[in-house]
Amino acid sequence: MPDLFAYTDGACSGNPGPGGWGALLLARDGDTIVKERSLQGGEADTTNNRMELLAAISALEALERPSKLTIITDSAYVKNGITGWLHGWKRNGWKTSTRKPVKNVDLWQRLDTAQARHDVTWKWIKGHAGHAENERADELARAGMAPFKKSSAK
Amino acid sequence: MRDARTIAVYAAEAQRYAAIEMTPDQKGALDLFLSMLPPHAHILDLGCGPGHHAAHMMAQGHRVDAIDATQAFVDAAHVLGVPARLASFDDITGTALYDGIWASFSLLHAPRTSVPRHIAALVQALRPSGAFFLGMKTGTGAARDALGRRYAYFSERELTDMVIAQGLIVTQTAADSAAGLLGSVDPYVLILARKPADHA
Asked: How many Cβ atoms are within 10 Å of B87's Cβ, its own excluded?
């Protein structure tokens, strides 16, 4: 059985502003890549954190069967949220420790549902540090953002 | 304009097709589309297939005009309580009729050169502030698949440009593509757009 990895990234031009997300799904058998799938998308008016979340959500939702996979993100917000804060938020009825509503609750709930179908290991890496797959996820995110950037709309 | 071979494939496969459930990303796109609509909206489901999407829309309190060119799908939709009717893309006429138009992987069966004209007719039928969803497989040219269905392929950029050219504001896109040895995922794009409020 090949091992499955998802490299996810978000991009935003202005915060809020037009944004994009990208996910590179790789099935590796040892050092050989046996399959790859790329996902990208964008929105007209969003934030970087929302795009980081949507990248991970889209990777998980794209898998038709429950799978064991590793998600590699350069977003500490996503990594810390999903592996830590989320448990407290759920206990508190989606409020933070200071009783404020959780930001981006719609996407956190969607991510929670999406990951429940799978066996996910979350990993954080430093972005823009020469990591080839992370760079490709970044390119996908930028491509996803392209239709929404006014300067590039022909 | 109707393609008899495509319709014949769906007629033969209607029951099997009706058993295929929505994937999470399709469900996500549908929920997002519905979130763009007012309560009790009037929706056109263009190429409704077995009626799952329309039934979900109706369960949320919306009124759905569901059409399909395959009689077996119209019949299957009736079983789900969806008042579907037999019609094809050329039957879409009129102005400002719908609050939302859901064109989920149906326009890809039109002749490739007719797709821009059909999109124009759909935008015409959409009310100001109306929501438009377009799901298409992506690629180049036109071809028949192994089952004999006719497909028109466009790139994500060509499709968003077509939608923008009709005066809509694209609010969201999502695209998927795959390469490799373990089976194929047909690349596709999902586009959500809104008609400007002051656009007649």
From this structure: 16
Residue in B with minimal Cα distance to A64: B23
The pair of three-digit structure tokens given for residue A115, joined into one six-digit string: 């990951």
Q: Are B102 and B149 in contact (CB under 8 A)?
A: no
Catalytic site residue A135? no
> What DSSP letter does each residue of B110-129 carry, written as one string?
S-GGGHHHHHHHHHHHEEEE
How do the pLDDT tens digits run along chain B, 200 residues long? 689 999 999 999 898 888 887 777 788 889 999 999 999 999 999 999 999 999 999 999 999 999 999 999 999 999 999 999 999 999 999 999 999 999 999 999 999 999 999 999 999 999 999 999 999 999 999 999 888 999 999 999 999 999 999 999 999 999 988 876 656 778 999 999 999 996 44
ipTM of the complex: 0.82
Q: Which residues contact A132 (CB under 8 A, 6 or more apart)?
A: none
The closest of B95, B107, B194, B97 to B151, measured between CA atoms, is B107
Residue B160 touches chain A, beta carbons under 8 Å: yes
Nearest CA distance, A88 vs chain B (angstrom): 25
